[in-house]
Amino acid sequence: MSRRGAIDVGHHEWVSAHLFYHGDQDPLIVRLIPAIVAELADGGDRPDVFFLRYWEAGPHVRLRVRAEPAEHDRVRRVIEARSRAFFRACPSAVAVRQEEYETRAALLARGEGMAGFTRELAQNNSVSFIPYRRENRRYGRVSMGAVEKHFVDSSRIVLSMLTAGVTPEQRVTAVVAMYLIVLLRLGAGALPRGDHADLFARQRDVLLPLGRRMRALVERTDRLPPGDGLASWAQTMAGLQKELEPRRQPAVMTTCAHLAANRLGVDLLTEQYAAALAARTVLDLGEEEISA
């Protein structure tokens, strides 16, 4: 079902749809988004798209599709029709209750430093066209185009992983690897504070070889062929870093790693654990180089 309301897309380049689905969102991402993209392409070039998982108004996937203003109505029609068909064929087996939503949303909003949040729980198995607003303050107005290009790349990389059936354990490893690439590009000065020695020591024999492989990717990024996976992540981060002001690089690039974890469906606590392991691995790689 569709929630009717304003159809202003917020920024003329993008159509924004919120796909409310309270259960496991992997099937929606893996099946619905490619179906929408394929129909919009109609045998031609596929449009740029990116997605995120979010909680406000109920669990949903935020889908953004780049389109010329003259194509916006068609894009909305395709999204709505494909979404309705998906919701009929694969309705969410989970339904969040209003009181359950309000309790959890209050905690999440507080954690994100939000002054307030949407109180009304959106209907499960529904689509709503809600404006996409660029976060110029967070990413920088001048850099916003490069950041959105990265969002498209990141969504493609994650969609490829999800389609391949990546397991929960593999997702955590992927997040560690993504943070490793970001931190290796930024250098030791950008490492977050904290020791994490106990976490690292238990997995040192796995993490150091992973760190060496990611360092090799970073060092030969310019020579890597186009593709998906972590090599593609190394390429998109290299491209993004070139477009960012140096003062913005640490915050923006680590935020992008956080958003990749979100796309993979890795929860915040697990992501923080993965980021801590990556930071400690980079420190040990540095010590390894000094002692070599």
From TrEMBL:
Task: Outline the extent of the Thiopeptide-type bacteriocin biosynthesis domain.
Answer: 14-282
Question: What organism, scientifically named, is this protein from?
Answer: Nonomuraea solani
What is the protein named? Thiopeptide-type bacteriocin biosynthesis domain-containing protein
List, alphabetically, the Pfam families matched: Lant_dehydr_C
Q: Which InterPro entries match?
A: Thiopep_bacteriocin_synth_dom
